[in-house]
């Protein structure tokens, strides 16, 4: 009975680096596909040494996954013990033993949170049943036939730390130059400059808001004055305010200055030779040329003056 497992993939592991699945060479491993327990080999003469647990058949790469099928050697007592724990679900993870061949700090192969270079090419040495996952602390790397000691979260012996700041140097230089700073400006210099620009922008925004409020007040004042002078009627107030907002205060002033205050028919009738309105007290004070116009166009005033002249009321 075989057990299909995922041996490895290109995800970020707990040590802070990743191994590209596409770069894993399985050629040599397929010649002797042994399965070990926790990467231990029986050559040191110590009590914790165990013989191989069996083999891993059908090892292959599919997409981003290194896959295989576990086959336990049931003739060995320890192997039967591990198989029993696998059958019960106590153990269910495997770990690859890899020998790094090449590495890269190319940003194209980096993932968020990565602290060390990416292993771009490697060789599969062995596959072990492990009590921790293949992409966790159970990952095992070999160098010159010996296991490399790894420390989760610390330094290791074969991968260089990635200097994230250096990766962003060119971007920092571009930002500094764009802000008018020298390309040697530090992050603190850039943040200080950005703060100054933001404060200036905030002040401009406040001033623009205040100016807009003042413009709207001036426009409303002009329209109210025009209504008082009877150049426009109150129902047209919003229309002229919007005209001032779209065309500007000066254009509104010019428009209102060209408008003539509305006059009642009586105002026109009572204009004297100088164009001034004359207030008549009696009918006899109205010039004969205007009397007929008043009788036709302003009957109320005509009747009022008639009564003042003759002491009796008339109805027209």
Detailed description of the structure:
This protein has helices at 27-31, 77-88, 164-167, 169-178, 187-228, 237-247, 249-257, 265-269, 288-297, 299-310, and strands spanning 3-9, 24-25, 34-37, 54-62, 65-72, 93-104, 118-130, 140-143, 146-148. By secondary structure, it is of the alpha/beta class. It folds into three domains: 3-162, no CATH class; 178-257; 265-310, no CATH class. Strands 1, 2, 3, 4, 5, 6, 7, 8 and 9 form a nine-stranded mixed sheet that branches. The chain is rod-shaped. The termini are far apart.
How far from one another are the termini? Answer: 123 Å
Helix content percent band = 25-40%
Roughly what is the average pLDDT, rounded to an integer? 82
Given helix and strand content, the structural type is alpha/beta
Please, how many domains?
Answer: 3
Based on CA atoms alone, the radius of gyration comes out at 48 Å
Listing every helix as H and every strand as E from the N terminus to the C terminus, the arrangement reads EEHEEEHEEEEHHHHHHHH
Shape: rod-shaped
How many strand units?
Answer: 9
